[in-house]
Amino acid sequence: VKEHDTRLWRVLNHYVHESRQGSDFSAVTQVGVDETSSKRGHNYVSLFVDMKSSQVLFATEGKDASTLERFSADLEAHHGDPSNIREVCCDMSPAFISGVEKHFPEACLTFDKFHVLKILNEAVDEVRRQEQQSRPELKRTRYIWLKNTENLKENQAATLEALQVKKLNLKTARAYHIRLNFQEFWNQPLQEAETFLKKWYFWATHSRLEPIKEAAYTMKRHWDGILRWFTSKINNGILEGINSLIQAAKAKARGYRTIKNLITMIYLIGGKLEFRLPT
Question: pTM of the entire structure?
Answer without folding.
Answer: 0.89
